[in-house]
Amino acid sequence: MIELEGVPELVDPVMVAAFEGWNDAGDAASTAVAHLDKEWKGEVFAALDAEDYYDFQVNRPTVWLDGGVRRITWPTTRLSVVRVGGDKPRDLVLVRGIEPSMRWRSFCNEILGFAHELGVELVVIMGALLGDTPHTRPVPVSGVTSDPDLARTMDLEETKYEGPTGIVGILQEACTHAGVPAVSLWAAVPHYVSQPPNPKATLALLNRLEDLIDLRIPLGELAEDARAWQLGVDQLAAEDSEVAEYVQSLEEARDTAELPEASGEAIAREFERYLRRRDGGGPPGPGQTAGHATDGEGAAYLRDAPSDRTRPPKPKPSQRPTEQSAGEPEATEGPGSAENAESAESDNGSGDSGDDSGDSGTSESSDD
Questions:
Q1: Most exposed of 99, 203, 320, 326 (fewest Cβ within 10 Å)?
Q2: How far apart are CA 162 and CA 157, in angstroms?
Q3: Where does the record place the region Disordered (predicted)?
């Protein structure tokens, strides 16, 4: 039974989740949730028992020294609550972790248990995929749902995907069957520069989330980081004529495909975002936080995303990529479409773990 002592009654709560691994190209989605947690100073109130869901030979624990005392940090999924003030207060339940290795149904049921107890009205799961999209253009972000009514009211695509899936797809379907409205947001990351971090994709996900839940998100230095990232990739691509030619071909294909869509709707959306930020008089303060570590729950802190940037490979303009980075999905259709977001799940097959039964392991306490 889930008991949430110390967590106050929430205002119109929305759960925002992201998981490192297969559904997180360039670490864009997990970094987006980490940004929300940092800007609004969320505090962990619960952490799932790592023993129940993770293979420690795949996601190994780390040992570190704390004042000369050796401690262990276990890979896990943690939950925090942030209280966002302002004219339209709305609380967020942030879920950030690693795609589980086993017992996916029990994992999703536990997440849904927290959502039920906290009165969550909407679950937004963020992911990122590899696609044929140029780094010089705006990052395509697709919003998909399994709920036809939600697709109609929130202007989303209704998913028609069939095939292998990851934890993002499993959790969305679990929400649908439980009667909890759920949306998945997918950012397309250029396959030729898939190394994390990708602040431009993270920024695009946060902008789409902002529009979806009507909440102004403080972006901090993300916009400047995104510009610096694009400049760095520009410089790397300019050093190789084949890469530069390939990027140009992607630009031409993207511009041709999106020309009919460069109309009033996209312009109006950007103008509304500009008005929200202007009327708000600058980024809001961190806001009041809520939630404290529950007794017996160990908060495991995830390692930072690697920041080293490597040279893009040399794909030939006439060929689509045939390989992908391990653990990251690859798009098989044009960038930015709902089919593209869903078809990314068919390139790797980690979803078989979801068939495991929900055997409970013994609770373990972290030294943290």
A1: 326
A2: 15
A3: 276-368
